[in-house]
User: Fold this.
Amino acid sequence: MTSLGLESNGVRPVRFTPSGAWRGFKQCLPLGVSVFAYGLVFGVLAVQAGMKAILAGAMSLTTFAGASQLMVLEFWGPALPVAGIILTTFIVNLRHVLMGAALRDWLTGISPWKAYGSLFFMTDESWALSMRELASGGRDAAFLLGAGLCIYLFWFCATCLGASSGFFLGSAMADPARLGLDFAFTAVFISLLIFFWQGQQDVPVWLVAGFAAWVGLLVMPGKWYILCGGLAGGLFGAWRHGR
Amino acid sequence: MAVELLHEASAWTVALVLAGMAAATYLTRITGLFLIARVKPTPRVEAFLRHVPASILVAIIVPNLVKGTLSELIAAGFTVVVAVLTRNLVAALCMGVLAVVLLRGLWG
Assistant:
């Protein structure tokens, strides 16, 4: 774990090394355990919704986005609303646009192949860890890829395990709350936010973001509240900057 | 196989859904970089982007706490304390999970 002391952004060139990827992979391992629990849940629910196990696995390999994969189960049946599912998937995942833009210091410093390849594996969890690494002066962009691959591996293996063992495992293990694993994500995001703290000037922005997210949660479906809060906090910060 | 088709969407439809979901998700993942690499941001856009990451974290956390039980709120407090004191992600994560398990066990 690095300390947040090195503020040398923009001085050293961005690198992309296996050791950087390994570092990201290792830092993501505690989150991998929680992702594994949710992958089990998805696998079990997918089979219960009538999806073939191999299809659930394929979806975890290609789409690799928990919220939209769970969402599609609501639509699953003999008549699939193809356009509706694809559009909803796009909307549910729109928050990724802001997240990808926030990583520009790393991603514009490496070749497009590496950047766009790494982005395939970007999740909320690996993005948040990468932002912390970036903010603390880390200059190895492969961190994002390594952290993403860690989540990818756990998500895929858990999906297959959950889908293949179906109801048996579903009744025994598919309740992450029993082990407190549902709270693991909240705890991680709280900690990362603490590390992001730069001073009192953050308070108004965070309040605006929190309020917008809360309103979004009340009036909008799915994970829209994340985009809502992110946009509101960003726009407020930009507005304040211009005054 | 023919009997199966009566009860399920056709293989082509399923393949289309699978490919469409993958493409739509990947599009959201790459659009941010695609735009930011081509358009030089103004200072105001810079300020916007600077405030987005923490705002997204706040936005992820708030609903969890608003919908959270008392156990989760107290565990969140413990997580904050450990994160501030140790600056260590794993320590704060373990504290949060341990606290929530113990507190839930404590009052049902």
